[in-house]
Amino acid sequence: MIIAPHPFGHSLTATTLLETFSTHKQWEDRYRQLILLAKQLPPLPESLKHNELELTGCENRVWLGHQHLPDGRLHFYGDSEGRIVRGLLAVILTAVEGKTPQQILKGDPLVLFEQLGLHQQLSSSRASGLQALAQGVKAIAAQYVG
């Protein structure tokens, strides 16, 4: 059974995000899209907001959990108290959901932010929080690679 299911990486893919964001050239419009993504991320139940899932290095409180699926792929889930950070988390989830640990370690989850035109507009604190999220994903994947 999947813990904390969400649409990212399933019905909302990197391709659908690229299509959506490509029609929005202004930063304000992309910012609105990020907030809309945040609204599609189901809130984590309080029972899943463990201290060990909380990431450090983020402006807002952020939780990042995962599940190692029987077929070897990883399911990620998370939440944040900040709606922009929730939107950033949704993009990260889209980039890494359902991939194997090897695929995650070979790739860069932040590439999707560049492709969407989001990275250069982030404040330094949000950019460092985003880096913390990417490092969290990589650290989880590294646990499963011999």
Q: Please write the string of helix (H) and strand (E) elements.
A: HHEEHHHH
Q: What is the strand arrangement across the widest sheet?
A: 1-2
Quaternary structure classification: single chain
Helical proportion? 40-55%
CATH class categorisation: Alpha Beta
Number of domains: 1
The residue-averaged pLDDT reads 93
Please report which band the strand proportion falls in: under 5%, 5-15%, 15-25%, 25-35%, 35-45% or over 45%: 5-15%
Major sheet summary line: 2 strands, antiparallel
Can you give a write-up of this model?
This protein is mainly alpha-helical and 146 residues long. Helices cover 47% and strands 10% of the residues. A hairpin with a 5-residue loop joins strand 1 and strand 2. It starts with 13 loop residues before the first helix and ends with a helix. The model has no long low-confidence stretch (mean pLDDT 93).
